[in-house]
Amino acid sequence: MSGTPHDHYASGHDDQAHDHDHDDHKPVNEHDDGPPGEYEIMSRAMQELLEQKGIITAEQVTKRMEQFDEEFPYHGGQVVARAWVDPAFKQRLLADGRAACAEMGAMLEAERLIAVENTPQVHNVIVCTLCSCYPRALLGMPPTWYKSRNYRSRVVFEPRSVLREFGTVLPDNVTVRVHDSNADMRYLVVPMRPAGTEGWSEEKLAGILSRDTLVGVTVPRLPA
């Protein structure tokens, strides 16, 4: 993929890894989310019907979504921060992600959570090529770009190009592994802990672990 023989696509649907050749696609567009799926169409139709009957307004829907986003418990950063400071917890997370997250109060919707660890030799990135399967209990609502047809297709074939568009430039000797989520299996990236964070509290470490770092499109960076 993207001119290197070292990148791999690991499908959560069949657990097989494959090499892919570079393919040209248009750049990632934050607002390119492709045609709506069946459930999205049903949701939109229900919302429009309720609005027509005067039961709710579009403004109320928007406000509730914003409130939900503010109140939703984002456990992902806390989980990875614990893994950074507690080697035993990290081993449990890598062995059984769902059980380890449950220790911290994060109850996942999928049967399995696979935590994949970034190293100096390997960088992991997550996608759902069929729809938008995503560990919401850990990361909140999926962003528009994650659901877009553009991201879902391009990150498989040219992950380095997509990562560059997020500001993540990797050395050629680093293998990029793309992991495909599905309804029963979700993934979480455990980024490398940045140098200069020795002695930080878990809370402070969690503050540099954004959703994008745990999907793998960016890496944790210290505040300027």
Report what the structure shows.
The chain is an alpha/beta fold and 224 residues long. It has a single domain, classed as Nitrile hydratase alpha /Thiocyanate hydrolase gamma (Nitrile Hydratase, Chain A, Alpha-Beta Complex). The protein contains eleven helices and six strands. The protein has helices at 38-52, 58-71, 76-85, 87-95, 97-103, 136-139, 144-147, 149-157, 159-165, 202-206, 211-215; strands spanning 8-11, 17-18, 112-117, 122-127, 175-180, 185-190. The chain has a four-stranded mixed beta sheet with strand order 2-1-5-4, covered by helices on one side. A hairpin with a 5-residue loop joins β1 and β2. The longest helix has 15 residues, at 38-52. It is globular and about 55 Å long. Mean pLDDT is 80; it is low at 1-5 and 12-35.
State the name of the first-level CATH class: Alpha Beta
Element order: H for helix, E for strand: EEHHHHHEEHHHHEEHH
Q: Termini separation (Å)?
A: 33 Å
Strand order of the largest sheet: 2-1-5-4
Q: What is the residue-averaged pLDDT?
A: 80
The biggest beta sheet is recorded as: 4 strands, mixed
| CATH architecture identity | Alpha-Beta Complex
Number of domains: 1
| Global Rg | 18 Å
**Low-confidence parts lasting 5 or more residues at pLDDT below 50?**
1-5, 12-35
Query: Structural class, judged by helices and strands?
Result: alpha/beta
By CATH, the topology is Nitrile Hydratase, Chain A
Approximately how much beta-strand content do the residues carry?
5-15%
User: What is the number of helices?
Assistant: 11
